Input
Amino acid sequence: MSDKTPKVNLRGLYKIFGARDKEVLKHVKEDGMGKEELLEKHGHVLGLQAINVEMQAGEITVVMGLSGSGKSTLIRHLNRLIDPTDGEILVDGEDVMKLSKIELRQMRQEKMSMVFQKFALLPHRTVKQNAAMSLNVRGMDKATQNTEALKWLERVGLGGYENHYPSQLSGGMQQRVGIARALAANTDIMLMDEAFSALDPLIRTDMQNLLLELQVELHKTIIFITHDLDEALKLADHLVILKDGAVIQQGEPQEILLNPADPYIEDFVSDINRARVLRVRSVMKHLESTEFSGDVEADDNLESLIALSEGDTSLVYRVISEGEPIGELNMRDLVKALVPRISSTQAA
Output
């Protein structure tokens, strides 16, 4: 865990779906009962178990896992669309479980905005009216609503479409409206639940690039849910991988890719294009050599370095960050990094 005070902090979070959730919780916490056994013996569904995750201000935390892993259940706890069976949810150090209905409504309006998978636009309202929705709910004057909506529509590439209706837009354009609406709310935290999953691959890539571009400028605290590992590795500052409601591994994405801590993670990352995902900084070593074949940026991917070197494994490059040398990369180390660890299940 980080030494920094997290923007969002989940401590010992459990969620059990069923009428006797508090009663059967002991079987999970004390007896170690898992998801299948709890359902079979007690007819309750284990949604989340022992979740401890710190989400830092200004970072993108990606929560990923397959269907049924608990990722969407987790994100709905942050604004209390779902209440936990046990545990704490802290936002800016404040326990959201202790908020009154009025305080909770205020938090949802002023601290958190949400971008949905299915866009959730009102079909009878214009693009501008949809983008201004959160400001309208807060009772802001029409002039402010229009100014903010138009500003953010322009920023996401929808200038000139403000008087159109959602049905007149493509799926990618509708999702841009959803992002503009979240940005117009001017909240510190953005919750994005499978926000790009319904989009075609090329449009999805464009939306990922837009999000990263906006993040460089705005430094929002973003909690992003996905089932796609490529998307997770591209977007995440901090990656949390769930299985059956539990955190299997979390940390910096490059570190997880290079050092999977569990056979499940090993299988998960085995088919990833490592050359495209891994960065020079993750493979470099301390600066020791005196002669180099050239300089490379720390955040370049290994694919670009392979192209630069033309596959010559005898070369050594100096690694630069913000104009300063910070390490070196031997092409032989790069080749080793491209070979995934043999998973325990494959070895067996």
